[in-house]
Design brief:
159 residues, alpha+beta, Immunoglobulin-like, 2 domains, five-stranded antiparallel β-sheet, three-stranded antiparallel β-sheet, 8 strands, 21% helix
């Protein structure tokens, strides 16, 4: 009885495609490990009367033995409880297998949000100001598309 169920399970996985069957991938050692994402830096790219252009650098560490290619990233950037920017990043970036890479995310902060952020920064001590990035990412890999949501927070003084 168990043998028939096992054979049926393997057959079903083969019919639906090996790349779609998580149990078989993990059994064969092809299981997915989520990448680790860190907020590495925030740099000012430009300043105008209407907006503040930033470059947010993300360090993406890939623990898998295959490359992960970022296809899309939807993000929200906030500080002091105020959302200062949101958007989509649609440029490809590859995190090398068993390695790390840095993705540079161009972010535009509207002037009103920038003023609120600067006001909060000046009113609080520098050591208290945190930056939070919430994102939903889609990675392409040899085992198919992988979706990953993450939140990274860092003290502004550490960026």
């Amino acid at each position: 009885m168990y043998k028939k169920v096992g054979i049926g399970f393997v057959g079903l996985c083969l019919l639906t495609g090996l790349s779609q069957c998580t149990a078989i991938r993990e059994f064969l050692g092809f299981g997915y490990k989520p990448p680790q994402v860190e907020l590495a830096a925030i740099d000012v790219a430009n300043i105008s009367f209407t907006s503040l252009g930033l470059v947010v650098t993300l360090k993406v560490t890939n623990p898998n033995d295959y490359d992960l290619t970022l296809k899309k990233l939807d993000y929200k950037l906030s500080s002091a409880g105020v959302q200062v920017a949101s958007g989509s990043f649609n440029e490809t970036f590859t995190a090398p297998k068993l390695g790390a890479g840095k993705a540079k995310l161009p972010v535009t902060v509207e002037v009103q949000s920038a003023v609120t952020l600067v006001k909060d920064f000046l009113e609080s001590s520098e050591s208290e100001t945190k930056v939070l990035l919430k994102a939903d990412a889609v990675f392409d890999s040899p085992i198919g598309e992988i979706e990953k949501s993450f939140e990274v927070e860092k003290m502004l003084k550490d960026l």
